[in-house]
Write a structure and sequence with these properties.
By secondary structure, this protein is mainly α. The protein has one domain: Orthogonal Bundle (Tetracycline Repressor, domain 2). The protein is elongated, with a radius of gyration of 19 Å.
Length: 203
């Protein structure tokens, strides 16, 4: 892929991300995205054959931004706890900034959990790998002792996900995504759980 193609693709993803985050998937059209870009619809469809393929690419783009941001911090974090807290803060900030984007994912999951599960699995894998890297730094610095880093990273992530679901005040058959008001409560509980979790791993 040429550098020029990379630049155009990145520009499409950035503009589409703003559209999806502000208006949501359902209220955004490919024609509006093309107009924002000053592209022809034909050029936009050259890169992405339909809105769903563009949406999936935007999700990947957003997750990559978050992972890169956390990776940059982990290298200079003063402790494994600070690194994990930063990762949790960054995840919550990303979801808040892209509320409509992630809310649509949750509604799709309810409609077709198997298909969405396949789409979301690579994202979960990347976040799990990042938590593995964070735990490895903690072990290397003799802050914590971990028998199985991969399993421990998954346990932390499953605990964070389960806590989010458990705190939601709405009917879970309706939506698995928190309201903007629930973000702070979820974040506070997640941080408390991580502190308790890390206490058990202290060297």
């Amino acid at each position: 892929m040429s550098k020029n193609v990379d630049i155009k693709r990145a520009k499409i993803l950035e503009v589409a991300k703003r559209r999806f985050a502000h208006f949501g998937m359902a209220k955004t059209t490919m024609a509006e995205i093309a107009k924002d870009l000053a592209f022809s619809k034909a050029l936009l469809y050259y890169y992405f054959p339909d809105k769903h393929s563009l949406y999936k690419a935007v999700m990947e783009y957003v997750v990559n931004e978050m992972i890169n941001k956390v990776d940059a911090y982990v290298g200079k974090a003063s402790s494994v706890e600070n690194a994990i807290m930063f990762a949790i803060d960054s995840r919550m900030e990303t979801m808040r900034e892209n509320y409509n984007l992630f809310e649509y994912s949750s509604s799709l999951f309810l409609q077709n959990p198997r298909e969405m599960g396949k789409n979301l699995e690579p994202f979960f894998g990347r976040v799990r790998d990042q938590f593995c890297r964070i735990l490895e730094v903690g072990v290397k610095n003799d802050e914590i002792r971990v028998d199985d880093i991969g399993e421990t990273a998954e346990l932390i992530l499953f605990s964070l996900m389960g806590m989010r679901t458990g705190i939601l005040s709405k009917d879970l058959n309706d939506c698995l995504f928190p309201t903007p008001e629930e973000f702070e409560l979820i974040l506070a509980k997640q941080k408390k759980m991580v502190r308790i979790f890390l206490r058990g791993l202290r060297a």
